[in-house]
Write a structure and sequence with these properties.
Blueprint: E1 7-8, E2 22-33, E3 36-48, E4 53-57, H1 64-72, E5 80-88, E6 91-92, H2 98-107, E7 109-112, H3 116-119, H4 126-137, H5 142-155, H6 161-164, H7 174-186, E8 192-196, H8 204-221, E9 224-229, H9 232-238, E10 241-246, E11 249-255, H10 256-262, H11 266-274, E12 292-293, E13 300-301, E14 318-331, E15 336-351, E16 356-360, H12 367-374, E17 382-387, E18 390-391, H13 397-403, E19 407-410, H14 414-417, H15 424-434, H16 440-453, H17 470-482, E20 488-492, H18 500-517, E21 520-525, H19 528-534, E22 537-542, E23 545-551, H20 552-557, H21 562-569, E24 581-582, E25 594-596, E26 606-610, E27 613-616
Parallel strand pairs: 4-9, 4-10, 7-8, 8-9, 16-21, 16-22, 19-20, 20-21
Antiparallel strand pairs: 1-24, 2-3, 2-5, 5-6, 10-11, 12-13, 14-15, 14-17, 15-25, 17-18, 22-23, 23-27, 26-27
Length: 618
């Protein structure tokens, strides 16, 4: 797991005198809603030159993805209207027939989408899906297409590409599926690659690999790239020029360095201020609120530290000792157990009142399983969990019900955790009513108070979840978790699906609630920059085990385990000066935690680096 050194690649100057590959003028896209045309993209103009990377950045609803879909003409013709001019290598894409446009897609311009699993057909092999592009657009024979597909898979660094030709999408990890999508997009050697949030759903180390891969392939193929994202860190690392979109309009555009260092529009400054920067907490002792910029005035509220000393002399509110959670792997006609997924292996830690302990690591490391095992949403295999006087693993159903007054969970996707047929007021008051903590009037008063606490209006209680934005729904989920006055909240990737400014608002809310209610948070995340901002202590998980744990400053300022260093090195830094940096493309994915029946976990030893900072000895 050695880190590849950063190498500085010379940045090729873009010859702006050349004719642009893509020229968009006065693009306006409207949708038919209740018999009326409503514009969601208005009067947007920009160029993409040969070999150039242009980023369109903005939050959900800004119109950036609709812009890309308009260029590709992938919007339903009966309910959408595209006006203006879209010229691709001198050809007006809005004036050609649908049949001609099908020839343009894949041949001259290709697109990578955010979620590769929804873009790949699960019933066809990877090889067949890429080969189809080659036989359809390039007229290759079956054998020629197979050979070219293997070459493309090797080009995007798929290990053992020839043997994986006949594998299906579900047999690939998320990062490898995204590489397959890039291979498919490159199959016809397009002049322009449109990448719509291609790294948002990926872990930070895989995201770094994909960004490096796109940079390298762009240089090798001489391709232009239109990169759609809401992540300013990604923009800084990949874009020559940047277009900032807000409510359907391009509010600012220019060279990326100019946007980052001299952004003029208040929304641009708000986006930049909300980006969590790794290393920004070096001079701060305690968790600190994100700075907030007023979008109308551009004024920034100075961030303040919000949580002070945690008294570790008292009994911890949560104590986990040697926690083990395994899932049986079965095969054969009679579903005989042949092994086990060692999801959580010998995990121990303590959590004190008013403290935030963050569990960090990539997908599959066991952090979410740890949180669910503590709450008995998943049954642990062994170990001990003591929660505010409860011996959690010995509780019956009645005891579990009582225990959950003390500990509550906030999930990643609030929409799936809220009943769509239930008003948000009913959803928030339901735990209070079920646990018989008061009458209907008291439940209504409690709900109104909780809505105020999370920054919403009490008169919103009568609305349904679909009537709220993603950030508002997450606030509602937080209010519901607080309805039983818990001492511990498990926040499982609770901000990872949110736009950057909404993420900052929700993190600030959690910090304020911790200070006012003395809550203990088990904060589960893969976002190292956010973790640095909100944590008192940090535990790094790898393959079901804690490999490093300690005070936030100790772990971030002096990381010891190779995996901790790898996680930190992969975090995108919102600094355009790093655009030429290559991390070194690695084919490494998180190793499988599946073990045979005869596997016995080795006894782990830890050494103390400094007070409370422990690292696993290899």
């Amino acid at each position: 797991m050695t880190e590849a050194p950063n190498t500085e690649a010379p940045k090729t100057e873009i010859p702006m005198t050349e004719k642009p590959v893509l020229s968009v003028r006065n693009l306006t896209t409207s949708f038919l809603v209740d018999g009326e045309w409503k514009s969601v993209v208005r009067d947007v103009s920009f160029d993409v030159h040969p070999g150039e990377t242009v980023a369109i950045v903005g939050e959900s609803g800004s119109g950036k993805s609709v812009t890309s879909l308009s260029i590709m003409r992938l919007l339903a013709a009966n309910v959408s209207r595209i006006e203006g001019s879209i010229m691709l290598s001198g050809r007006d894409l809005l004036s050609i027939s649908e049949k001609e446009m099908r020839g343009v897609r894949g041949n001259d311009v290709s697109m990578i989408f955010q979620e590769p699993m929804t873009s790949l057909n699960p019933i066809f092999t990877i090889g067949r899906q890429i080969s189809e592009v080659l036989t359809r657009h390039k007229g290759l024979t079956k054998s020629q297409a197979r050979a070219e597909t293997v070459r493309l898979l090797e080009k995007v660094r798929i290990p053992n590409a020839g043997a994986r030709f006949d594998d299906y999408p579900h047999q690939f990890s998320g990062g490898m599926r995204q590489r397959v999508m890039i291979a498919m997009a490159l199959a016809s050697k397009p002049k322009l690659l449109i990448a719509d949030e291609p790294t948002t759903a990926l872990d930070v180390t895989i995201q770094g690999q994909i960004l490096d891969l796109i940079k390298v392939l762009q240089e090798e193929e001489g391709m232009s790239v239109l990169f759609i994202t809401h992540d300013m860190g990604v923009v800084a690392e990949i874009a020559d020029r940047t277009i900032v979109m807000y409510r359907g309009e391009a509010v600012e555009s220019g060279p990326t360095e100019e946007i980052f260092h001299h952004g003029k529009h208040p929304y641009t400054r708000a986006l930049l201020s909300a980006v969590p920067r790794l290393g920004s907490m070096q001079d701060r002792k305690w968790p600190t609120r994100f700075p907030v910029v007023d979008i109308n005035t551009g004024e920034t509220a100075e961030p303040k530290e919000v949580a002070g000393t945690v008294d570790t002399r008292k009994t911890p509110v949560l104590a986990v000792k040697n926690l083990v959670t395994r899932f049986a792997v079965r095969s054969g006609l009679f579903a005989t157990q042949t092994g086990a997924v060692h999801a959580v292996e010998n995990v121990s830690f303590e959590l004190f009142q008013g403290e935030t302990l963050s569990l960090v690591g990539e997908s599959g490391c066991g952090k979410s399983t740890t949180g669910r095992s503590i709450m008995r949403l998943i049954e642990p295999t062994g170990g001990e969990v003591a929660l505010d006087g409860y011996d959690v693993l010995r509780l019956d159903q009645t005891g579990l019900r009582d225990m959950r007054k003390t500990i509550q969970m906030i999930f990643q996707d609030p929409f799936s955790s809220l009943n769509p047929r239930m008003t948000v007021g009913a959803a928030i008051s339901e735990p209070f009513v079920k646990h018989k903590l008061g009458n209907a009037k008291e439940a209504k008063e409690k709900t109104a108070d909780l809505l105020r606490k999370v920054g919403l209006s009490p008169d919103m209680a009568g609305r349904y979840p679909h009537e709220f934005s993603g950030g508002q729904r997450q606030r509602i989920a937080i209010a519901r978790a607080l309805s039983l006055d818990p001492k511990v909240i498990v926040a499982d990737e609770s901000v990872s699906a949110l736009d950057v400014s909404i993420k900052a608002q929700v993190c600030n809310l959690l910090l304020d609630l911790q200070q006012s209610l003395n809550l203990a948070f088990l904060f589960i995340s893969h976002d190292m920059a956010v973790v640095e901002r909100v944590s008192h202590r940090v535990a790094v998980m790898y393959l079901g085990e804690i490999v490093e744990i300690g005070p936030r400053a100790a772990v971030f300022d002096n990381p010891q385990h190779p995996y901790t260093k790898k996680l930190m090195a992969a975090v995108p830094v919102p600094d355009p000066a790093r655009r030429g940096i290559r991390r070194g493309i690695s084919n490494d994915e998180l190793k499988s935690p599946v073990r045979g029946m005869d596997y016995r976990p080795p006894k782990r030893e830890y050494r103390e680096v400094s007070a409370g900072h422990m690292v696993q000895v290899a």
